[in-house]
Amino acid sequence: MHGNIYCTSSFDKVNLKFDGVSSRLKLTGLKKMPVTLTWHGDNCTTVEISGLDIGWGQRTPLKFDEGQGLWTLQKDLHEGKYEYKYIVDGEWICNEFEPITSPNKDGHVNNYVEVLDENPDNITSAAVRKRLTGDDPDLTSDERLIIKQFLEAYVDVE
User: Fold this and answer.
1) CA gap 137, 82 in Å, rounded
2) Torsion angle, CA of 92/95/101/104, rounded to 10 degrees?
3) Which residues belong to any copy of the AMP-activated protein kinase glycogen-binding domain (predicted)?
4) Range 31-116 classified under CATH 1.10.10.10
5) Structure pTM?
């Protein structure tokens, strides 16, 4: 989910880019967990990822591990579900060895990773995750305030 939020004040028109669920999860203080993504094969010269926590307009390169013959990216991600796609030598492609989404409204499919707190005793984390990642996310007034402060701190004024 990508969207532009337009705010109008008496002084300036503000254009904010806000990137859906991963940003909401980041702002609520959910834990970060280590994630490793891999692309098998040494018959390519570059492997990158787009989507994930950086958005579809950005790319992050994977590093080639000669000993294992695979490309890897290690990241700490906040709890949540992240969609992404590999870009191998310039071609956008899904990794058939990782989970793949159903086609979205535009017919695109992506890989995805679901980052969960592996501590079964952390009931609070599970409840927050369920509330924020459901079909109708419900933010508390404190969470709304955190998001408002975050957006105000990162405003690009035209």
Assistant:
1) 16
2) 10
3) 33-118
4) no
5) 0.61
